[in-house]
Amino acid sequence: DVKVTQSSRYLVKRTGEKVFLECVQDMDHENMFWYRQDPGLGLRLIYFSYDVKMKEKGDIPEGYSVSREKKERFSLILESASTNQTSMYLCASRRQGPGNEQFFGPGTRLTVL
Amino acid sequence: KQEVTQIPAALSVPEGENLVLNCSFTDSAIYNLQWFRQDPGKGLTSLLLIQSSQREQTSGRLNASLDKSSGRSTLYIAASQPGDSATYLCASYTGGGNKLTFGTGTQLKVEL
């Protein structure tokens, strides 16, 4: 079975802190994604990566950056956390190619105080 | 730009009932359509993937159909159980086929 893991299930940080969210997949997938999910707004794509060291902005990249140094790991970085970044963050991965199945991690509930 | 709509937003049914969840999309040039389940506070679990060349896909009590020409997909759940209570999301790949567009989900409650 494909496994996508995220470093924390719950995280509480203070405004202005630098926050790292880590995601690891074990199926040698080329593509990895970071989403945030908020009530009434659904899932929104923050960043995605086609392969190692490659990244592209999604629909809402402002205030975030990403890092993909190894194929299995995709990190989301909040350079200076703000209260409007309180959300559920979901990582996903899939094999390269149009229409391949996408798999999600368990999510990280981030609260910024 | 692809738009994906799921109606109704919430549904409550008695245990044992067969039910259908609906998903509509505006751009029929899709690569595939994927159905997910999400339990409260959890990530998304992939249920079924229908390729654009397929009409339907089955897994256990679940059957998903795809009609590209009308821009519709349905998820049929047979003999519903309380454990089926969750939010169900559909999502489609369009354009270059690398990004999913999600619907806003149907929250299902199966009552004893």
Protein described:
The complex is a heterodimer of chains A (113) and B (112). In chain A, strands 2, 4, 5, 6, 9, 10 and 11 form a seven-stranded mixed β-sheet that branches. Chain A has a four-stranded antiparallel β-sheet with strand order 1-3-8-7, with no helix packed on it. By secondary structure, chain A is mainly β. Chain A contains no helices and eleven strands. Chain A is globular. Helices cover 0% and strands 54% of the residues of chain A. In chain B, the strands form two sheets. In chain B, strands 2, 4, 5, 9, 10 and 11 form a six-stranded mixed β-sheet that branches. Chain B is globular, with a radius of gyration of 13 Å. The model of chain B has no long low-confidence stretch (mean pLDDT 93). The chains are: A mainly beta (113), B mainly beta (112).
Euclidean distance between termini CA atoms of chain B: 41 Å
Cα Rg of chain B = 13 Å
The major sheet of chain A is characterized as: 7 strands, mixed
Q: Name the structural class of chain B.
A: mainly beta
- Return the string of H and E elements of chain B: EEEEEEEEEEE
Shape of chain A: globular
Helix share of residues of chain A?
Answer: under 10%
Q: What structural class is derived from the secondary structure elements of chain A? A: mainly beta
| C-alpha end-to-end distance of chain A | 37 Å
Order of helices and strands of chain A: EEEEEEEEEEE
What's the average pLDDT of chain A? 94
**Quaternary class:** heterodimer
State the helix count of chain A: 0
Q: What percentage of amino acids of chain B are in beta strands?
A: over 45%
